[in-house]
Amino acid sequence: MSKVKIALLQLKADRSPKVNHRRTLEHALKAARKGAQILCLQELYRSLYFCQTEQHKFFELAESANSASVEDFRELARSEEVAVVVPFFERRAEGVYHNSAAVIDADGAVLGIYRKMHIPDDPNFYEKFYFAPGDLGFRVFQTRFARIGVLICWDQWYPEAARLTALQGAQILFYPTAIGWHDSDRKAAPEQMNAWQTIQRSHSVANGVYVAAANRVGREGKLNFWGRSFVSGPMGSVLAQAAEKREEILLADCNLAKIESVRQHWPFLRDRRIDAYKPITSRYLDA
Hints:
The chain is an alpha+beta fold. The protein has a single domain, classed as Nitrilase/N-carbamoyl-D-aminoacid amidohydrolase, CATH 3.60.110. The protein is 23% helix and 29% strand. The protein contains five helices and 17 strands. It has a six-stranded mixed beta sheet. A six-stranded mixed beta sheet has the order 8-9-10-12-15-16, covered by helices on one side. The relative contact order is 0.16. The model has no long low-confidence stretch (mean pLDDT 97).
């Protein structure tokens, strides 16, 4: 297919995982009925962003990759013939947890999961307490409608992640996200939001792909999630953007044929000096 309609679900979170799950399913159904073919939910959609503190009780939110929550979206995918990116707090084994996303195709089959590779440990983003780093690498999933890559939140700041996913043939990079500004950073919020969008638009340009970032909205604890979910095209232009404070189903049309056209005119992948990039695997290059 050369043209694909995608949807990003930007929602507020409730204290109840059941409420969040039900409301997200309802919005996903609406998105499908609006013509969306690939849907992406926000990071950790079933709960408030619990990583603001380190508390063992929140491990109770974790679920397996074949949980009832994922099964509900498999059924939605089958019935509506849509592909869905479903982020979830993965309980892999006793004491082993990941920040993951299941990729479900339009027939309800689970194509695989992606486990967040870059795990932050910043004030109010204490994810290393909860999540082991991903060990499946950067992956691409062939859905009925497009070849997609999935990266999660903190991954979005790393050009290496986008590049390695694009090099495997991804046409659209989906970034389920939970990002906002802290009460103490109110003045810096505009600059932070600009940096967040700029780095991801640069992934579109450098790789000639579509990028779709799904964020949440609303105030949770001391964090104000800034929404602004968006989709950028292969030349970095913003094709669609949601509001900062309002729930939205953000729809965007992606013309996959444009990827080849852009890469023909801007042949960044052709001109890469792969013979000169070995030092990139070093932590830092000392003088």
